[in-house]
Specification:
25% of the residues lie in helices and 34% in strands. By secondary structure, it is α+β, with helices and mostly antiparallel strands. The chain has a domain of 67 residues. A five-stranded antiparallel β-sheet has the order 4-3-2-1-5, covered by helices on one side. The longest helix has 11 residues.
Amino acid sequence: MMNLLQIEGELMNKEKNLMGKTRPVENPYEIWVGELPDGIWTWRVLKKWQKPSKERENPYARWFCAVKSPNTYGSWEYGDTYARDVQSVAIKMDIPF
């Protein structure tokens, strides 16, 4: 018979990273929007590198994002960013599509 810690460990091992495959910018997993001193920033999360339980434990968890800001002149710039940096300045939006 398994104790509660063993059961919890088994469940965490079975957890999948449902956002582990890269998506196109037109179909992101999440959209985050923040108003910073220089204007409106938009992050489209195209991939998350860790499953949610590991991401919560890791202060250096990364997301692959397409980012649009006043500094990108209407274009998307792609790259990894720390999840905590996005979450500290933006709010998660409902995806309209």
